[in-house]
Amino acid sequence: MTAPLLEVRDLTKAFPIVRGGAIRRTVGALTAVDGVSLAIAEGETLGLVGESGCGKSTLARCILRLVEPTSGRITLAGRDVLGCDRTELRRLRRHMQIVSQDPYGSLDPRMSVQQLIAEPLQVHGLAGDRHGRRRRVAELLSMVGLSREHAARHPRAFSGGQRQRIGIARALATEPRLLILDEPVSALDVSTRSQILTLLEALQARLGLSYLFVAHDLSLVRSISHRVAVMYLGRIVETAARERLFDSPQHPYTQALLSAIPVPDPIRERRRRRILLRGEAQTRATTPGCRFAPRCFRARDRCVEHDPTLDELAMSGHLAACFFPTCDVVDEEVS
Q1: Which of 200, 138, 136 is nearest to 164 (CA)?
Q2: Helix 160-172 to helix 190-207 angle, to the nearest 10 degrees?
Q3: Which of 157-171, 217-231, 305-319 has the lowest mean pLDDT?
Q4: pLDDT of 327 over the 60 cut
Q5: Which residue, of 144, 198, 199, 304, has the greatest Cβ tally within 10 A?
Q6: What is the pLDDT of residue 144?
Q7: Please, is 186 exposed, middle or buried when counting C-beta atoms within 10 Å of its C-beta (0-12, 13-18, 19+)?
Q8: C-alpha dihedral (231, 237, 239, 245), degrees to nearest 10
Q9: Residue 16, C-beta contacts closer than 8 angstroms, at least 6 positions apart
Q10: What local confidence, expressed as pLDDT, does residue 28 receive?
Q11: Which helix (H) or strand (E) element contains residue 32?
Q12: CB 6 within 8 A of CB 212
């Protein structure tokens, strides 16, 4: 089998909890990412979903080393990301870029579009002299559906969708192999979301890009992803090919998420089975066993006492961290 482009093994990130006034002391740690393993192949999109606060964005930033992981291993095209010094990391980052959630806050308002997109070209020594950089910026703007005339303007002159296109153009400037898309359309209206998703799919087909698509909207993830990983309280609890996960979810948390997706048919929507979870979303595990057990509708004594591992089920490539997986259909109608 071909080796994956990105491979993450047992990645953990713990943030210290510091208290005190003049004398500050560490009283504990908040584990935002807890032993996560995943892989992304060349030209593949892995959708990463879960509730707000589950660690999705922290995981994405750990992969880029924008946040330093506590432990684990990350390889990009066989190169050890965590073993790189600052010089090596700068060279490696040319091949992995991020598109942020906020198209308004991710662009420096003092810089023109030309300067914003040309900056990574200068940092990595690409596109030669000033004239070469201008030509390359014009090519990148055309690639994302903007014109070369936009290069002289500043971000304030653009709509949210146009700003996100500029952010994508800037990310593509270094000719990366992996794009981490951190909620890239959550701040946009519905019609603009569709346009940006269509653009991302076209760019992937044209350039052979790999995507880690971070989102909480499952309908978006289903439309763009090849595989999906579901995250809960810092851990991956289920992963499978897109259609297999949506058609046959095995983990109760995945089933609860899917049951909340609205159905266009009002009759079917009224009759479908909804799964309501107990309690509120937490920020950390509160049980030595399965961290989902306090909210799970199928929890048993074993779930409270022991922590399940992410294991492959009878279906090839489908993994779930659950002692009692099921093949129940989520939108089964109630009698």
Answers
A1: 200
A2: 20
A3: 305-319
A4: no
A5: 144
A6: 95
A7: middle
A8: -90
A9: 26, 28, 29
A10: 80
A11: strand 25-40
A12: yes
